[in-house]
């Protein structure tokens, strides 16, 4: 793993290359006053390297996509940070080093591709779940600006493998029914291959992965999904996150402890098993949403925490509108009149029957 200090934005990068290889032709695009170029192209004979600054800003450093080309054909690529290791790899490539020599000396070169190749060599049957046409294109299956990306999937299971900069070679998300159950990082591609096989090919329960692989740890969502109560587990986990958010003394709330105490009181009444919790700045929101993020047609209750009271706002669609929402969504140009809105306040953070009745009414809506 690259440990040397990285140049955060690429300043002076081309000067280092030019000093080491005076005959290299260097072009750069996107240079603005006060900023480094967004893309470098370095050419020497039939060898070429392109260095593209990615929009993502990660751990106080820009990430860069580096391509090693021969006769204008990409031979290797990956995302990394600019530093001495990256610079030396580029100089070696322009100095006629072979791809295998780069592999031996520089871990980041084709790191994602090599990790996936190890996974497929360890468990060849995973190729059926990855739609991989060839090893040369393994890192090009799915790609976005945040890093190389690859996905293995079965009917209701997904494994996303991602890399970015100089983090461990692979960061992995394990999904079940569209919900992320585990998020892990490991450099042991052999064990990872068998973990993916268990999850994708064998539909192994979360407890089996936790028992057999050291990089998995138990969590609320995993436990509830294994019990067949996945949505309930997602709801509880959302309350865990909101309680942490509103308990943070560094938050923008000067009364965060009062807000967190009120949330804990609602949890003690069992509402965390029935509602998804979320927030918009200082507004704590409860809904019956199946997924994170509210649509305009979904009912919710907003609790806006103030210094000595809570402003309550209910946003409930009329039942006829809610039950025919699939039809109405196509023609919802004006939402006025389609929702019943109620507003009131809880002085001194007092829990009242008015709020309880509102919560009970929200509970009558199906999870959607």
Largest sheet: 5 strands, antiparallel
Multimerization state: single chain
The figure for the number of domains is 3
Amino- and carboxy-terminal Cα gap? 44 Å
Number of strands: 17
Q: Kindly state the mean pLDDT as a whole number? A: 81
Structural class: alpha+beta
Provide the succession of SSEs: EHEEEEEEHHHEEEEEHHHHHEEEEHHEH
- Gyration radius, rounded: 26 Å
Count of alpha/pi helices: 12
- Overall geometric form: elongated
Helix content: 25-40%
How would you sum up this structure in a few lines?
The protein has 368 residues and is α+β, with helices and mostly antiparallel strands. The protein has helices at 13-20, 84-94, 99-105, 111-122, 189-201, 206-212, 220-226, 230-247, 256-268, 319-323, 325-328, 353-363, and strands at 6-7, 25-29, 39-44, 47-58, 61-70, 73-80, 82-83, 142-144, 147-153, 157-162, 170-176, 179-186, 276-280, 283-287, 300-305, 309-317, 339-347.
What does this structure look like?
The chain is an alpha+beta fold and 368 residues long. It has 3 domains: 6-109, no CATH class; 113-226, no CATH class; 230-363, no CATH class. It is built from 12 helices and 17 strands. The protein has helices at residues 13-20, 84-94, 99-105, 111-122, 189-201, 206-212, 220-226, 230-247, 256-268, 319-323, 325-328, 353-363; strands at residues 6-7, 25-29, 39-44, 47-58, 61-70, 73-80, 82-83, 142-144, 147-153, 157-162, 170-176, 179-186, 276-280, 283-287, 300-305, 309-317, 339-347. It has a 5-stranded antiparallel beta sheet. A 5-stranded antiparallel beta sheet has the order 8-9-10-11-12. Helix 4 (111-122) packs across helix 5 and helix 7 (220-226) packs antiparallel against helix 8 (230-247). The two termini are 44 Å apart.
